[in-house]
Design brief:
single chain; three-stranded antiparallel beta sheet; 29% strand
Length: 79
């Protein structure tokens, strides 16, 4: 399974990514081995995720979410 996820960083910012293992990836982010963006904004908290059959679908959804405004991302998280 492939996942697109959103985490909330310590500073309140949101980061979107994709992975094949959500728990492992959040752990990596919190250990400073995730993305460069989240490294200085730890800890992060998983606030949203979606599942996909293929890596391509997850990556396309990641890109689509990254194009959303902060307000649109907040609405997505609230659903």
């Amino acid at each position: 399974m492939n996942y697109t996820y959103i985490v909330k960083c310590r500073d309140g910012s949101l980061y979107t990514g994709w992975t094949t293992d959500v728990e492992r990836r959040i752990k990596e982010h919190n250990e400073g081995r995730g993305a460069k963006y989240t490294n200085s904004r730890r800890p992060v908290e998983l606030v949203y995720y979606e599942t996909f059959e293929t890596k391509i679908e997850a990556m396309k959804r990641e890109y689509a979410i990254k194009q959303l405004s902060r307000e649109e991302k907040e609405k997505l998280i609230q659903k």
